[in-house]
């Protein structure tokens, strides 16, 4: 039976790997910080905490959070959402300030009160280099939801944000869709024709 489980195993997503290494649901929100010595960022004397969000609403939460931090001058050092982790964002600051910042924000499902060890999120802090050359007019396939598998024409390329604006080919009305460059596959380059 163990051999069957080994053959059935599949490659885990980044979210699954993070969830396995993170706290369990019963440790969310009400738990006191762990007794073990937390890893702090030496420059600021603050920790990184994990905030659970509704799936797909991470950017909305980040917008609300950023606005509140600026408006109320809450001493939060950074807010980050790695696209690979669905349903989680990271906030750097002390626990009281993080709790104050997230209080009452829609789509927040909880706060894991134990600081994240920096070595667990280090992979998300390093910028990925994407070497995709896209030009306006190229035909691409979208590799991510909700338009996964759809073909589109490149309307605009923003290399600074690593984003591309696409127009769906199968839509009756041209619908502009912004997608990260790493989530498109080039099918046909401008000037090249499939034979």
Care to describe what's here?
This protein has 2 domains: 2-125, Alpha-Beta Plaits, CATH 3.30.70; 139-188, SH3 type barrels, CATH 2.30.30.30. The protein contains 5 helices and 9 strands; from the N terminus they run H-H-E-H-E-E-H-E-H-E-E-E-E-E. It has helices at residues 2-8, 14-21, 58-72, 95-102, 118-125; strands spanning 47-53, 78-80, 88-93, 108-112, 139-142, 151-158, 163-168, 176-180, 184-188. Strand 6 (151-158) and strand 7 form a beta hairpin. The chain starts with a helix and ends in a 7-residue tail after the last strand.
List keywords for this structure.
single chain, 195 residues, alpha+beta, Alpha-Beta Plaits, SH3 type barrels, 2 domains, five-stranded antiparallel beta sheet, four-stranded antiparallel beta sheet, 9 strands, 24% helix, 25% strand, disordered N terminus
Which range best describes the helical content: under 10%, 10-25%, 25-40%, 40-55%, 55-70% or over 70%? 10-25%
Query: What is the molecular shape?
Result: elongated
| Intertermini distance | 50 Å
CATH topology of the largest domain: Alpha-Beta Plaits
CATH class of the largest domain: Alpha Beta
The figure for the number of domains is: 2
Name the strands of the widest sheet in spatial order.
8-7-6-5-9
What composes the largest sheet? 5 strands, antiparallel
| Uncertain residue ranges | 1-9, 23-44
Radius of gyration: 21 Å
Give the second-level CATH assignment, the architecture of the largest domain.
2-Layer Sandwich
Classify the secondary structure makeup into a structural class.
Answer: alpha+beta
Output the number of helix runs: 5
SS strand fraction: 25-35%
Corresponding CATH superfamily of the largest domain: NusG, N-terminal domain
Mean pLDDT: 78
């Amino acid at each position: 039976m163990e051999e069957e489980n080994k053959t059935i195993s599949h490659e885990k997503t980044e979210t699954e790997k993070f969830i396995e290494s993170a706290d369990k649901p019963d440790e969310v929100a009400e738990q006191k910080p762990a007794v073990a010595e937390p890893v702090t960022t030496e420059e600021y004397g603050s920790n990184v905490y994990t905030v659970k969000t509704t799936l797909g609403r991470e950017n909305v939460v980040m917008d609300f959070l950023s606005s509140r931090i600026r408006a109320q001058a809450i001493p939060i050092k950074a807010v980050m959402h790695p696209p690979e982790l669905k349903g989680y964002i990271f906030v750097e600051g002390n626990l009281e300030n993080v709790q104050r910042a997230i209080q009452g924000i829609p789509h927040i499902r909880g706060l894991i009160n134990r600081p994240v060890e920096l070595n667990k999120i280090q992979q998300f802090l390093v910028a990925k280099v994407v070497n995709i050359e896209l030009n306006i007019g190229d035909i691409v396939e979208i590799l991510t939801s909700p338009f996964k598998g759809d073909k589109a024409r490149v309307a605009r390329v923003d290399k600074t944000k690593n984003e591309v604006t696409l127009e769906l080919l199968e839509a009756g009305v041209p619908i502009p869709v912004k997608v990260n460059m790493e989530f498109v596959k080039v099918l046909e380059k401008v000037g090249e024709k499939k034979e």
